[in-house]
From TrEMBL:
<feature type="domain" description="Lipid II isoglutaminyl synthase (glutamine-hydrolyzing) subunit MurT C-terminal">
    <location>
        <begin position="319"/>
        <end position="432"/>
    </location>
</feature>
<comment type="subunit">
    <text>Forms a heterodimer with GatD.</text>
</comment>
<comment type="similarity">
    <text>Belongs to the MurCDEF family. MurT subfamily.</text>
</comment>
<dbReference type="InterPro" id="IPR018109">
    <property type="entry name" value="Folylpolyglutamate_synth_CS"/>
</dbReference>
<protein>
    <recommendedName>
        <fullName>Lipid II isoglutaminyl synthase (glutamine-hydrolyzing) subunit MurT</fullName>
        <ecNumber>6.3.5.13</ecNumber>
    </recommendedName>
</protein>
<dbReference type="GO" id="GO:0009252">
    <property type="term" value="P:peptidoglycan biosynthetic process"/>
</dbReference>
<dbReference type="InterPro" id="IPR043703">
    <property type="entry name" value="Lipid_II_synth_MurT"/>
</dbReference>
<dbReference type="InterPro" id="IPR013564">
    <property type="entry name" value="MurT_C"/>
</dbReference>
<feature type="binding site">
    <location>
        <position position="244"/>
    </location>
    <ligand>
        <name>Zn(2+)</name>
    </ligand>
</feature>
<feature type="binding site">
    <location>
        <position position="225"/>
    </location>
    <ligand>
        <name>Zn(2+)</name>
    </ligand>
</feature>
<keyword id="KW-0133">Cell shape</keyword>
<dbReference type="GO" id="GO:0004326">
    <property type="term" value="F:tetrahydrofolylpolyglutamate synthase activity"/>
</dbReference>
<keyword id="KW-0479">Metal-binding</keyword>
<feature type="domain" description="Mur ligase central">
    <location>
        <begin position="65"/>
        <end position="280"/>
    </location>
</feature>
<feature type="active site">
    <location>
        <position position="354"/>
    </location>
</feature>
<comment type="function">
    <text>The lipid II isoglutaminyl synthase complex catalyzes the formation of alpha-D-isoglutamine in the cell wall lipid II stem peptide. The MurT subunit catalyzes the ATP-dependent amidation of D-glutamate residue of lipid II, converting it to an isoglutamine residue.</text>
</comment>
<keyword id="KW-0573">Peptidoglycan synthesis</keyword>
Length: 445
């Protein structure tokens, strides 16, 4: 934290940052995008150690946020809390969470000579590159949110990823603080194996238990001995209150009492994000009043439970990019009284090209309640077929509308939404960007 850089490294760093900033200016001036990845890619070719050279200048350290779901919301909430205390933050707010995106975020906050003057850097990191970036970043705090199956064509099983995390985190300095999700068996076990300071976050609210373990379950076996875990109840997917009847492994105790923390964002999954950010903020010395006040006025990140008003009607965008996340957004929809939903399924690189994951989603709950379901996207017919297979009876009161053209699909969904209800839109990642551009006229990336 705040280390001095040798002269030769300073010269090369300054050159890399200057060129990267020029690229950023050019891309944004020509409205070619947000320039959230390309500048970092170019800078890393000029100075391969740029992540290390910039991160070591951060005064109070790097906060790394990793996991399958919730990174963007948790990072933005923690960033907002710290900014309310007057700290200057570097943050990869566009969600570009691979190495080039991390480099770009730090470059954006540096001057032309490569000097970085920020108090903290909050970086959300793709779960698969955590082992690659921990050494150059040397984070002060690591938030481990959850591990679910995400893009089937890109990643292996969650236990493989967790083992890689454990191996590399265990090599970090003892003063590193690790904050895992106590309700995730693999992460709870990870935290129990470390010598570093470990704090946990999680729920202790049986009233939120699901009626049954959902289809999209990744880890119901003991990470210590392999025996089936006994669950008192699950909150979502494999996250819950568990013990192992064979070896005695059990859920770690969370630092904060979850029932004492309210949230403004919809969805139980956002309760986890809230608790994760609050636990990290308290560890950084932020007072509880500031944390609670920030949470009570917090606005969701784009596409994550984001609320808009379009033509006088309420619209809520709920990013739905994998089985667990989609099951939770469906829970938000089914717990409301709103009866119009737009589902958009794409299979582009940011989404993952394998869309077979939709068969692990509990779409039956969405279909059973009836109402209007509008379907669109690159794989519109795959999603329409999944919904048809979810119908128990041909006599259901479901109005399923299939529309290939996204703009027409949005218009149709809005037309079917009564003035006093909210249109819920459940898109994959690239679809979410398209939806926001259609609705607001602004591109994100």
């Amino acid at each position: 934290m705040g280390k001095k850089i040798q002269l030769i490294d300073r010269v090369r760093l300054g050159l890399a940052v200057s060129i990267a900033k020029s690229v950023t200016f050019l891309v944004r001036s020509l409205r070619l995008g947000a320039a959230s990845v390309l500048p970092g890619s170019i800078a890393r070719r000029i100075e391969p150690q740029i992540l290390q050279l910039l991160s070591q200048q951060v005064k109070n350290g790097i906060i790394l946020i990793a996991g399958t779901n919730g990174k963007t919301t948790t990072a933005l909430l923690l960033c907002t809390i710290l900014e309310h205390k007057g700290y200057k933050i570097a943050h990869n707010s566009t969600g570009a969470n691979l190495e080039n995106g991390l480099a770009t975020a730090l470059i954006d906050n540096a001057n032309l000579l490569g000097s970085l003057n920020v108090d903290y850097a909050i970086l959300e990191v793709d779960e698969n590159i955590v082992p690659k970036v921990l050494k150059p970043l040397q984070p002060r705090i690591i938030l481990c949110l959850n591990l679910f199956r995400d893009q089937l064509d890109r990643y292996g099983e969650v236990d493989t990823i967790s083992k890689k995390w454990t191996k590399v985190i265990s090599t970090l300095p003892d003063e590193t603080v690790v904050i895992p999700n106590a309700d995730d068996p693999t992460l709870s076990y990870l935290g129990q194996q470390l010598n570093q300071k470990v704090l946990f976050f999680g729920l202790n609210e049986p009233k939120h238990y699901l009626e049954a373990i959902p289809h999209a379950v990744d880890s119901i076996f003991c990470p210590k001995c392999g025996h089936s875990l006994d669950y008192e109840g699950v909150y979502l997917s494999h996250l819950g209150d568990f013990t192992c009847p064979s070896c005695g492994f059990t859920k770690s105790k969370p630092t904060l009492e979850s029932g004492e923390w309210s949230q403004i964002l919809v969805g139980l999954y956002n309760k986890y994000n809230t608790l994760a950010a609050a636990t990290a903020a308290q560890e950084l010395g932020v007072d509880e009043i500031t944390i609670r006040e920030t949470i009570s006025t917090f606005q969701a990140a784009f596409g994550r439970a984001e609320d808009l008003v379009i033509d006088g009607k309420k619209v809520r965008i709920l990013l739905s990019k994998n089985p667990v996340g989609t099951n939770e957004t469906i829970r938000v929809v089914t717990e409301s009284t709103d009866k119009t939903t737009l589902l958009i399924l794409n299979d582009r690189t940011p989404d993952g090209t394998d869309v077979s994951w939709i068969w692990d989603v509990d779409t039956e709950k969405l279909v059973e309640r009836g109402g209007t379901l509008v379907v669109s996207g690159d794989r519109v017919y795959d999603m329409a077929l999944r919904l048809r297979y979810s119908q128990k009876s041909a006599q259901s009161n479901l109005n399923l509308i299939v529309e290939e053209d996204l703009r027409k699909a949005i218009t149709t969904a809005l037309e079917h939404t009564p003035a006093n209800e909210t249109l819920h839109i459940l898109p994959t990642y690239s679809a979410m960007l398209e939806v926001r551009e259609v609705l607001t006229g602004r591109q994100i990336l």
